[in-house]
Design a protein that fits this description.
Four copies of one chain form a homotetramer. The first copy, chain A, is mostly helical and 208 residues long. Helix content of chain A is 65%, strand content 0%. The first copy, chain A, is elongated and about 60 Å long. At the C-D interface, helix 6, helix 7, helix 8 and helix 9 of C face helix 6, helix 7, helix 8 and helix 9 of D.
Chain lengths: 208, 208, 208, 208
DNA sequence: CGATAAGCGAGACGGTACGTCACGTCTTGGC
DNA sequence: GCCAAGACGTGACGTACCGTCTCGCTTATCG
C-alpha cells in the first residue's frame, strides 16, 4: 500500500524456481553425504545454478542447511480427534513418520548442530519451542477441559517424552539399518502412547 | 607366556599416556568449537603431540571423534535400588546428567552423525543397543520378578521413552541457553518417572 | 574476433600479473634458500597469492621451479661484432655474467636436476641444445665464411668448452665465496677466449 | 704411539662394513631418485641398517650425501705421460669417464648444491680447489719446464676449460638421453685437447 | 667372569611441507 | 541487477620425511 513494495524492479528479477531447487539439492546432499561431505559446490552443481545464486540468498552453509531442513518442517495441521488418547496417537504417529523420513531426520540433526554451537539459535529455538510445544499444550488443555487429564501434568515433560521417544526410535532404527513400514510405526505409536498414559503396574492392565 | 601378543617389543613403544591426552584434547576442542571448527591440528597442538602421533592411532577425524566421545561413555554401574521406581529415578537422573554434560552431549551428537552416514556403525550400534538396552531390560526383569511391573510392557519402548526424554530435555536446555543445576535435574527426573509410571487420568490410579 | 581462442571468457579470468609475480617470488626464494628450504607456501606468501593460484598454473614444485628458472633465460640477442674473436669475447662475457647472476646460476642448477632425473626434459633439452647450440654454430659459420676459422673445428666442442668454462668459473667463485665485479669478468673472458683461440706453445703462433 | 688412539675400546665397536654399505646405498638412491626423492629412510632400508646407525656417523642428509659423493672421488693418480699433450689427453679422458659415470655425475651435482647454499663449504671447497687444481698446476709446471708451454698461461683458466668442457659434455649427453661408450669419449677427449692446444685459424691445421 | 658401556635394528615421536579440496568472495561476460 | 562460470586468498586435510628418542638386544672391554 503506497510504497509499492520498495525498490522493486530495476534489473533482472531473481529466477523464480531457484530457491526450491537449491533447497531440494541441499537436502539431498545432506541426506546422502552427511555434514562432512556436504559441500556448497556440490549443492550448486546439483541444483544447476552458480554459487553466486546460492550465496545471494543464504549467507553461508549453516544458513542454507538450516532453512533446507526446517522448510521441510513437520506438518503441524492441528491434531484434534476428540479424545486425548486419539490426539496423542495421531501426534506420535506423525512424529514417528517425520523422524524416520529423510527430511525429518535431517531436521533433527540440524537441531543438534545448532544446539551445539550456541549461536544464531535466535529463530530456530523459538520455532522448536513455540510451534512444537504449543501443539502439545493445546492437546493437553483440551484434555484437561474434557476431564481426561490431571491438570498437574506438565505439558513440557510430556513433550520431552513423546518427541524423545520418536527420535530415539528413529535413531535406533538407523543404527541397526532397519527401515520401518507404516504398520510398524502404527504399532509402535500405540505402545508408546499406552506406556505414557497408563499405570504400568501388574494389576493396572485392566484398560481393555 | 601369558601375554603372547605376537611381534611385541620391536622398536620404541608407543607413549603410554598419549591416547588419553589426545582423546581429552579432542573432546575439549569438540566441546568448545563444535564439529565445524574442530581441527586435527588444534587437537594435536592442545595435546602437545605431533599430527603423526594422532594419525598413527586413528585413521581420520571421524574415527578420533567417535572414540573420544564414546570413550566418555555413560557410567553404567548397575543401577539397583530395590524398587522399580527407585531404579528408574536413578537411571533417569544419571542419563540427565550425562546428556547435560559436555562429554555426554558430544556422545549423542556423534551417535547422530554415525547413524546418518550408515557406515562403520559396527561397534557403535552394538554398544548402544546392548549395553544401554541391557540395563533397562535388567531393571524391568527385576521389577517383574518383584511383581511391580506387568510383563507385557516392552523394555525397548521404555528405553526409547526414558532416553529420548532426557535427550530432548538437554536439547531444549541448550537451545534456550539454559544450564541446569543438579536440583533441577532431580526434579525433572521425578516428573519424567512419574509421568511414565502412573496413569495420568484426573483421579490417579482408580480408573477401574 | 581474430583472437578466437576456443572457449574463452567463461568465468573470472586469471589475474594477469600473477604468473610473473609467482615466478619472481620463486626465483627469489630459490636464490635465498636453495632447493632444500624452498617451499611452495613461502613462494605463495611472498607473491601475495594463495597456494591454489600457484597450483592452478603449475602442477608441482618441480614444474614451477623449472619454469621460473628457464624463463629467466639468457639474453641471446644475436651476438655479431664482425670478428670471430669479438663474437667469442662478447658471448663469453654474457655467459659469465649469466652464470654469476642468481637467476642464471639457478638455471644451471635446474638443468642439472632435470638431467639427473631423466624426465620431462621434453622442452628443456631442446631449448638448451638448439637455442644455445645454434648461437655458437652461427658464430662459427660466419667465422668460417670470413676465413677466420678452420671448417674442421666442431662447434659442439667449442660450445662445451665455452659454456663449461664459464660454468666452472661461477662454481669456483661460489665455493670460495667470491663475488666477481664486471671488470674481473671481462679480464677472465679475455683469458678464456685467448686460451681457446691460440696455440699455447711457448713462442706464440710460430710452431711451424 | 703412547696415546693408544685415545679412549678406544669400551662398548661394542662399530660394525666394520656399515660405512661402505651406507655410502653405496646413498649413492644408488641419489642416482635413481635425485635430490628430491632421496630419503634417509630409504638409504637405511637399502643398506639394511637402522637410521640410528646412519645418524651416528653423519650428522644429517647433506653430510651423508656429500661424503657419499666425494668418497667416490676421481682417481687422481698423478697423470704423467712425459708430454703436455699426453698429460692433457689422459686427464680429459679421466674426467670424461668420471663425469659420465653415475658416481662422478652425482659428485658434480653435490658440488652445485653445496655451492648454492653458501654453507659448510669448508672442506669441500678446499678439496675441489687444491686436489683438482693442484693436478693441473703440476701438469702445467712440468710442461713449462720442458718448454712446451708458455709460462703466461694461467692454470686456473685451463682447469676451468677442461673441467667445464667435460662437465657440459656429460650434461648434454644426459639431457639427450645418450650414453657414451669408451671410444666416443676417447674421440671427444682428442677434440677437446686439440681445440685448447692449437691455434684454430684456417691455416693453423699443420699439426699433423 | 660379571658389570658396564657402546652399537645396533626397529619404529614411535614432535615438527613441517607437501599437494588437494572446500569455503566464501570476487570478477568476468551474457541475459 | 541477476546469473553461470570459475579464479581468488585462506586454511584444514591426510601423507611423508626429517632428525631425535626410546626400546630390547648384541658385542665388546675392563675390573
Amino acid at each position: 500500500m503506497g510504497t509499492g513494495e520498495g525498490a522493486r524492479g530495476r534489473g533482472r528479477p531473481r529466477t523464480p524456481g531457484a530457491e526450491d531447487k537449491i533447497l531440494a539439492a541441499a537436502l539431498a546432499e545432506y541426506g546422502e553425504r552427511g555434514w562432512a561431505g556436504f559441500t556448497m559446490d556440490a549443492v550448486a552443481r546439483r541444483a544447476g545454478v552458480g554459487k553466486s545464486t546460492v550465496y545471494l540468498r543464504w549467507h553461508d552453509k549453516d544458513a542454507l542447511l538450516t532453512e533446507a531442513v526446517t522448510s521441510q518442517g513437520l506438518e503441524l495441521t492441528g491434531v484434534d480427534t476428540g479424545t486425548f488418547r486419539g490426539d496423542l496417537l495421531q501426534l506420535v504417529h506423525n512424529l514417528l513418520r517425520h523422524a524416520h523420513s529423510p527430511g525429518g531426520w535431517a531436521a533433527w540433526r540440524v537441531a543438534f548442530d545448532v544446539a551445539s554451537v550456541h549461536q544464531r539459535l535466535g529463530g530456530f529455538s523459538e520455532a522448536v519451542n513455540q510451534v512444537h510445544g504449543l501443539q502439545v499444550e493445546q492437546i493437553c488443555q483440551r484434555a484437561v477441559d474434557r476431564g481426561e487429564l490431571a491438570a498437574t501434568v506438565s505439558p513440557g515433560i510430556l513433550t520431552s517424552l513423546i518427541y524423545g521417544a520418536t527420535l530415539v526410535d528413529a535413531l535406533m532404527a538407523r543404527l541397526n539399518d532397519r527401515t520401518a513400514d507404516d504398520a510398524t510405526l502404527d504399532r509402535r505409536a500405540l505402545e508408546i502412547v499406552d506406556l505414557v498414559l497408563l499405570d504400568i503396574g501388574p494389576e493396572g492392565a485392566d484398560h481393555s
